[in-house]
Amino acid sequence: MLKKNLSTAAPVWDDAQIRAEDQARVAALRQSPGWTKRLLLLLTLIGPGILVMIADNDAGGVITYAQTGATYGIGFFIPALVVGGFIAYVVQEMTVRLGAVTHRGHAEMIWGRYGAFWGWFSLIDLVVANILTLITEFIGITVGMSVFGVPPVVSALGGIVVDGLILLVLRYRAWERVSLWIAAGNLIFVPLALMAHPHWGAVVGAFQHWAIPGGFTAAFLFVVLANFGTTIAPWMLFFQQSSVVDKGLTVADVRHGQVDTALGTLAMVVVAVALVILTGTFAYGRPGAANYDIQQIMQVIGQHLGATGQDLFALGLVEAGTIAAIALTASTSWAMGEAFHWPKSINLPFQKAWKFYVPGLVSAGMAAGVVLIPNAPLGFLNLTVQVVASIFMPAAMLFLLLLLNDHDIMGVHVNRRWQNISAYSIVGLLVILNGLYGLSVVFPKLF
């Protein structure tokens, strides 16, 4: 059954029943011999990792990577994005284990383990960051659709309608598969980068001579934080863990969850690098390129690749905003449902779980409203949102690490030593970068 029952007259699906049926299907595939069944098992279990990573290449990320390539070329940031992919995998793999072992979402774990104070802290952190990030998604949707002559009001309302229909009509399994098909559109930036015919020797040379173009400045630090903010963000922790739980994954599925996350990481890095190569080839070095907004960048792409290239980039921008809006809306709803013990599954119909669905949809509506404010500084707002996400991330990471090192919760699945070293190094790096950025704001002449 693909659709949730929205009629009050018909029987209502129970999310536990649906999840049990999904788990029974997985158990049957696991016991079946043959490589075809193994492949089918993998295809059945993948989803949360690919979705969270590709949704991380959201409209704000596309804009950030495009502006990064236009400003700094294909030197420093291509290796940095590869490192960022490793960081993202280390972080998100932990949410797979935590969700599969506990069968509880991230917000529910924090409230249950550390009490209401830290529960409220993490929830407010997440909701604020999600609304801010959703603003960037609707920036991408409205800007992308403007290339086709669609007014911002129409494109913003269209984005909300698509998001709402997918969330309200489909049960989890169908919701995930439809979202994966939408996410596949993110790959459009790869052929666009190939069409740019970049100097591949320069791309390889970026790994051999990793240098900061223009020196270490406050502006460079701001862009670094923006790139980190779009690579790892608090919503990703809540989304993937809750998605793992709603999908019904168990400890036996952890390996497949790790493969799922690795595949998503690879796709995320490839697309991010493609964007930097694309704009680094076409826009970098042009007068004023460091201050280009996304509309100017699309015009440059159109000058080199024609109207088709510009249209494909615009469609990719719309796709990026749409898939991220779907993920962010679900993330907010899951977190609110877990925190307040509301029904909290995409398997449930609206009339049974309206408290679960409303927060996510309201947050999307608020974000769309901000984007429609006349003369809003959308380009500056986009980069600022990514920096805010980077600033919020260390606190979210610390909660995750505390949970992953709790033997009472995780048992034999606690973090290994190398995982803790990697994770605490990531937290330390973010704290240092945030501290340096704070110093650059207070003492602008320091750098």
Automatic annotation (TrEMBL):
It is a multi-pass membrane protein. One of its GO terms (molecular function) is manganese ion transmembrane transporter activity. Keywords: Membrane, Transmembrane, Transmembrane helix, Transport. This is Divalent metal cation transporter. The chain crosses the membrane at residues 39-55, 70-91, 111-132, 138-166, 178-196, 216-238, 259-284, 312-335, 356-374, 380-403, 423-443. InterPro entries: NRAMP_fam. Pfam families: Nramp (PF01566). It comes from Sulfobacillus benefaciens. Its main location: membrane. It is found in: Membrane. GO terms for biological process: iron ion transmembrane transport. It comes from the Bacteria. One of its GO terms (cellular component) is plasma membrane.
